[in-house]
Amino acid sequence: NNRGELRIHESLDELRTDLADYVAELSEASVKERGVFAIALSGGSLIGLMGKLCEAPYNKTVDWSKWYIFWADERVVAKNHADSNYKLAKDGLLSKVPIVPSHVHSINDSVSAEEAAEDYEFVIRQLVKTRVVSVSEISDCPKFDLILLGLGPDGHVASLFPNHSALNEREEWVTFITDSPKPPPERITFTMPVINSASNVALVVTGDSKAESAHLAIDDVGPDCPLIPARMVQPAMGKLVWFLDKLAASKLEES
Ligand code: 6PG
C-alpha cells in the first residue's frame, strides 16, 4: 500500500522509544546534510509521546543547538494559556533540553487569527530565504525536515478538519480558522500543500478512539468512504511514517 510505513507497537512505552529513535535519527541526518534540523510540532497527545527525547541517551546525543522549531498548528491563545500548543511543547520538551531560544518559532499571540497566520507565513518565508527551511523542488512550498502530526477521531490533522474550506487551501502556506470543531475555535495551521512538501511526515496515533479514522486514512477503503483529511497526507517526495499503538491499529485490514 502507498500509505507509508506502518509501525505498530505493542505498548506505549515501545512506541515512545521508537518515536524518539526516529526523531533523533532524522535530526542527525538533517544536521549532517544541511547543518540544521527544521521540525514542526503539533499539539495533543503527541508531545507526551515524544517525552523520551528529554531523557538519556537522547538528551545528550541529539544536537539540540541545530534544531529550529515550528508548529504545524497552533491555537490562537496567549503563549502561557493552558490551551497553547507552544506551552505544551515548552513544558513537556523544549524547557528540558538545550534548545536555542531564538530558534523557537511560536506564533504572534497578540493579534487576530488571520494576522497570526499571515505573520507566521512571513516568518517561514524569511527562514526559507536563509535556508534554515529548505524549499520543495516541485511545489515552491517550504520543505520541513520533519512534520509531526496527531490524528483526531474525526480524521483531522494539524487544524485541517473534515469538510472545512481550509482543507482546500492551495495558495497560502499557513491559514487560519475561527470555527474549529475541537476547541478552542481560533487556530492557525499549515496547509495540506506544506504538509505534503515535507521531507518526512510522521502521524502519531494512539488509543481506540482513533481506530476508525486510522482505518479510513490508511486502508484501501474505496470511493464510497469519506475522504478524511489524514488520507490526504501524501508527501510528494517525502516519506510518511505512521506510529500506531495496538488500539489505534485495531481496525486496520492488514495488521
Ligand atoms: C490540536 C492539535 C491537533 C492534534 C490532534 C490530535 O491543536 O489539538 O495540534 O492537531 O494533534 O487533535 O490530538 P490528540 O493526539 O490529543 O488526540
Note the main sheet: 6 strands, parallel
Low-confidence segments, ≥5 residues, pLDDT <50? none
Helix content range of the residues, please? 25-40%
Oligomeric state of the chains present here = single chain
Bound molecules: 6-phosphogluconic acid
Radius of gyration: 17 Å
Percent in strands:
15-25%
Question: How many separate helices?
Answer: 7
CATH class equals Alpha Beta
**Spatial order of strands in the largest sheet:** 1-11-10-7-2-3
CATH topology call: Rossmann fold
How would you spell out the order of helices and strands? EHEHHEEHHEEEEEHEHE
Structural class: alpha/beta
Query: Overall mean pLDDT score?
Result: 97
Distance between the termini: 12 Å
Shape: globular
Describe, in short, the structure shown:
The protein is of the alpha/beta class and 255 residues long. It has one domain: 3-Layer(aba) Sandwich (Rossmann fold).
Structure explained in plain terms:
This protein has helices at residues 12-34, 46-49, 58-61, 85-92, 113-129, 192-195, 211-218; strands at 5-9, 37-41, 67-71, 73-75, 134-135, 142-143, 146-150, 174-177, 187-190, 200-205, 239-245. The chain is of the alpha/beta class and 255 residues long. The strands form 3 sheets. Strands 1-11-10-7-2-3 form a 6-stranded parallel beta sheet. The protein has a 3-stranded antiparallel beta sheet with strand order 4-9-8. Strand 5 and strand 6 (142-143) form a beta hairpin. The two termini are 12 Å apart. Bound molecules: 6-phosphogluconic acid. The site of 6-phosphogluconic acid has 14 residues, from strand 4.
